[in-house]
């Protein structure tokens, strides 16, 4: 009997392909069906179909999609949580403090969701994007770099950059209303550049810098890609999307950071020898990272340090810029509250034009309430996401491992049970006597639990220094009412605000 070798090979190959597909598809299919069945009892905001999920009802633009989710959380305020399927990806939407607590207080659910993958080319697996043991070890190493005494060293940079901002704003006094978003963003960028790397990019005076431009472009490109699933596969991103421009920016950003690291690494060796000289130098996060060691006494490589410095650059400037803009906008809408801030500034500084000190910061209690109330109404990170890492129970519903959870501070912060008359701008809510009984997970602009924002004290300090300096010089008036700001344009929608300044 003769055997047809060609036929045999075809059968073997065919069999191998079918076996591989079975191994790959059946478990995924089984997991999909399991999640579908288990999540079914959770409230859905519309009809859900197999494979497409709720995709047919979603708006395509990023701002519109965000708005839609917010509308669902309003409409289903009494439901404990929502489920949505984006194609075959299941999500639960959390906007009640008890349920947010289940997720954020757990040491298990620390993995970031799929959308963070698009940050990897720029930030690698830095603190924001890493997980497991790598994240634990890095977090341990980096926490001391945000110690109070180290933050105090950054005060001077914040004061200097605020003064430059004031000089730039002065040119607008008494003129047509103008948009100050870019002014604050560039100030925040200069502050983070100097404090993270010890390097000035002078973006306030030179916004044409290649580095500054690359930071803007890449942030924009990544945000857009996260919202457009058709650009998720690399080939589509490079063929039809902004992949090539993304890589061009990446090259500029990585080589800038690596050059600064190399330069600093050289300097560290020098200043270690000449300790008198090192005292005079300003320390940056980067200097501390160069000296930091993990539990085994190992130092970070230059590439590890680059990941962390780039992460600070990404997380540490447009978040604070948006927060400062909103605070100023709200004060510009509410003259009485602005007056209270001015009174506090008068009490602390009088007529003096001296720099803000650490002592002053402690005294600016009402300004701190304003900052918190602004972050309540307009959190710089209005939603963030995690992957559920093991089966858990939220509000009586079983949530299987692998489901994505979206936490929506924007809606959570508007829970009328904890914030009566939630749309009202009322900084007094954050006075200790009014906030001590509040649920600890109902106000989470910096997230909470193990993976909370490592830079939150830095951020509040920066906001206090910049806002107090600006408000010691000017009175602001917002030229649009809140209803007029078009939320659909952008989730930060701050870019369209207009201010009038009086000295
Ligand atoms: C108003 C300003 C800021 C806000 C509202 C804010 C908010 C947040 C939020 C919500 C998270 C959690 C994100 C997530 O789970 O996906 C986060 C994480 C983080 N933030 Fe901030 N942030 C601010 C400023 C800063 C600054 C100034 C820095 C650095 C200097 C910074 C560095 C980080 C880092 C490294 C993480 C990741 C922490 C980890 O996973 O261990 N942030 N931030």
Automatic annotation (TrEMBL):
Binding-site residues for heme, renumbered to this chain: 453
Keywords associated with the record: Heme, Iron, Membrane, Metal-binding, Monooxygenase, Oxidoreductase, Transmembrane, Transmembrane helix
EC number: 1.14.14.14
UniProt xrefs under PROSITE patterns: CYTOCHROME_P450 (PS00086)
Domain of life from the UniProt record: Eukaryota
Gene Ontology molecular-function annotations: aromatase activity; heme binding; iron ion binding
Residue spans crossing the bilayer: 6-30
Family designation: Belongs to the cytochrome P450 family.
Cofactor(s) in the UniProt record: heme
Record protein name field: aromatase
Catalytic activity: testosterone + 3 reduced [NADPH--hemoprotein reductase] + 3 O2 = 17beta-estradiol + formate + 3 oxidized [NADPH--hemoprotein reductase] + 4 H2O + 4 H(+); androst-4-ene-3,17-dione + 3 reduced [NADPH--hemoprotein reductase] + 3 O2 = estrone + formate + 3 oxidized [NADPH--hemoprotein reductase] + 4 H2O + 4 H(+)
Function: Catalyzes the formation of aromatic C18 estrogens from C19 androgens.
């Amino acid at each position: 009997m003769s055997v047809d070798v060609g036929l045999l090979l075809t059968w073997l190959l065919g069999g191998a392909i079918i076996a591989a597909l079975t191994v790959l598809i059946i478990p995924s299919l089984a997991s999909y069906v399991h999640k579908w069945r288990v999540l079914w009892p959770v409230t859905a905001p519309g009809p859900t179909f197999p494979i497409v999920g709720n995709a047919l009802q979603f708006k395509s633009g990023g701002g519109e999609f965000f708005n839609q989710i917010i509308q669902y959380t309003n409409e289903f305020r009494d439901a404990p949580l929502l489920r949505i399927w984006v194609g075959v990806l299941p999500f639960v939407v959390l906007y009640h403090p008890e349920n947010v607590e289940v997720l954020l207080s757990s040491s298990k659910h620390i993995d970031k969701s799929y959308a963070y993958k698009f940050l990897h080319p720029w930030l690698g697996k830095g603190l924001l994007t890493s997980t497991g043991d790598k994240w634990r070890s890095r977090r341990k190493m980096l926490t001391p770099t945000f110690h109070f005494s180290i933050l105090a060293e950054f005060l001077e940079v914040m004061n200097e950059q605020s003064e430059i901002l004031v000089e730039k704003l002065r040119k607008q006094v008494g003129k047509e209303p103008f948009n100050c978003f870019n002014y604050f963003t560039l100030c925040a960028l200069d502050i983070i550049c100097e404090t993270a790397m010890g390097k000035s990019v002078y973006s306030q005076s030179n916004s044409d810098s290649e580095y500054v431009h690359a930071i803007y472009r890449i942030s924009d490109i990544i945000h857009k890609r996260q919202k457009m699933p058709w650009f998720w596969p690399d080939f589509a991103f490079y063929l039809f999307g902004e992949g090539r421009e993304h890589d061009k920016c990446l090259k500029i950003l990585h080589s800038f950071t690596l050059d600064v690291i190399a330069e600093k690494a050289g300097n560290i060796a020098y200043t270690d020898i000449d300790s008198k000289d090192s005292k005079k130098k300003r320390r940056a996060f980067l200097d501390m990272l160069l000296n930091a060691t993990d539990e085994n006494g190992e130092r970070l490589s230059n590439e590890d340090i680059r990941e962390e410095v780039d992460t600070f650059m990404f997380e540490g400037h447009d978040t604070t810029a948006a927060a400062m803009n909103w605070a100023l906008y709200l004060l510009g809408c509410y003259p009485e509250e602005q007056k209270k801030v001015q009174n506090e500034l008068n009490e602390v500084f009088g007529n003096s034009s001296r720099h803000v000190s650490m002592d002053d910061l402690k005294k600016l209690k009402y300004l701190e309430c304003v900052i918190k109330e602004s972050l309540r109404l307009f959190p710089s990170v209005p939603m963030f996401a995690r992957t559920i890492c093991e089966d858990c129970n939220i509000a009586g519903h079983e949530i299987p491992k692998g489901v994505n959870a979206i936490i929506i501070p924007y809606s959570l912060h508007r829970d009328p049970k904890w914030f009566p008359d939630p749309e009202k701008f009322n900084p007094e809510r954050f006075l200790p006597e009014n906030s001590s009984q509040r649920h600890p997970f109902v106000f989470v602009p910096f997230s909470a639990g193990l993976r909370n924002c490592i830079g939150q004290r830095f951020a509040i300090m920066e906001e206090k220094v910049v806002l107090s300096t600006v408000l010691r010089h000017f009175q602001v008036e917002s030229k649009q009412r809140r209803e007029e700001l078009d939320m659909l344009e952008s989730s930060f929608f701050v870019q369209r605000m207009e201010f009038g300044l009086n000295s």
